[in-house]
Design goal:
With about 100 residues, the protein is α+β, with helices and mostly antiparallel strands. It contains two helices and seven strands, in the order βαββββββα.
Length: about 100
C-alpha cells in the first residue's frame, strides 16, 4: 500500500543528500515506508479501486532515486493528463 503525498512536500525530501527535483503538476508522488520504485518498475501501474470489481489506472512509474530504499518517494506520471487521448484510443470508461 502506498501513500500519495503532496508534490510540494515530495520535492523537499532529501535522497542521497540531494533534493528531489519535482516541480511539475503532471506527477503523483507516493511514499512507501518499506521501499520505493526501481528501474525495473518503469511504466508500472499506480491503481486505485473505485468499486469492488473495478480498478483504475491513475499513474505510471516514471522516476526513481535510491532504488529500493525506505521512505524515498516514488514518482508517477498522472494518467489523467492523457485521458482524452486514452479514451479516443480505447473508448470511455464504464460506470461501476
Amino acid at each position: 500500500m502506498l501513500d500519495v503525498i503532496n508534490v510540494t512536500h515530495c520535492s523537499t525530501l532529501k535522497t542521497d543528500n540531494k533534493l528531489m527535483n519535482v516541480s511539475t503538476s503532471n506527477v503523483i508522488c507516493t511514499l512507501n515506508p518499506t521501499k520505493n520504485n526501481c528501474l525495473i518498475d518503469g511504466g508500472g501501474p499506480l491503481l486505485i479501486q473505485l468499486c469492488p470489481n473495478r480498478w483504475v489506472l491513475i499513474g505510471t512509474a516514471s522516476s526513481w532515486q535510491d532504488c529500493g530504499q525506505e521512505n524515498v518517494p516514488g514518482i508517477y506520471t498522472k494518467v489523467s493528463d492523457y485521458r482524452q487521448w486514452i479514451d479516443a484510443k480505447t473508448g470511455p470508461e464504464e460506470d461501476c
